[in-house]
Write a sequence for this structure.
């Protein structure tokens, strides 16, 4: 699953995520460290066991927490390799943040059922198109290539 407001350029993040998925037989989410003051914009997770330099198991994840309740400043960035069980989980998921059914809440439900999710710290360049300023900066960045 790819979210359209998160762009990752210069290195193929999806390809590296697929390789990690095959290697560890687990779900994978693109990840990066964000400013603690901006954690309320992302799904934020708690790191578990380190698998290698760029990949960690995720202990739990929360959708758009406030700065005080955030378990870290490690954010899920709009790239996911998810298990088929996510669809059934989403069908039964109660609305969460902003009264919406959140993919992050469904992922947390699967983590509680011992499904493995890996945070993949990608090597590409992240462009945030989720705000007007970010969209403008991203457009300028892409126009340089």
């Amino acid at each position: 699953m790819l979210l359209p407001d998160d762009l990752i350029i210069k290195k193929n993040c999806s390809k590296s995520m697929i390789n990690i998925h095959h290697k560890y037989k687990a779900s994978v989410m693109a990840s990066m460290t964000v400013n603690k003051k901006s954690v309320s914009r992302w799904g934020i997770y708690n790191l578990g066991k380190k698998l290698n330099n760029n990949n960690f198991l995720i202990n739990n994840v929360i959708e758009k927490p406030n700065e005080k309740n955030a378990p870290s400043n490690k954010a899920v960035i709009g790239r996911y390799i998810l298990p088929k069980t996510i669809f059934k989980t989403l069908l039964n998921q109660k609305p969460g943040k902003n009264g919406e059914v959140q993919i992050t809440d469904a992922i947390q439900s699967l983590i509680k059922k011992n499904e493995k999710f890996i945070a993949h710290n990608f090597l590409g360049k992240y462009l945030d198109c989720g705000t007007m300023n970010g969209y403008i900066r991203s457009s300028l960045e892409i126009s340089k290539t």
Notes: The chain has a mean pLDDT of 93. Residues 13-24 form the longest helix (12 residues). Helices lie at 13-24, 85-92, 103-112, 132-143. The first strand starts at residue 6 and ends at 9.
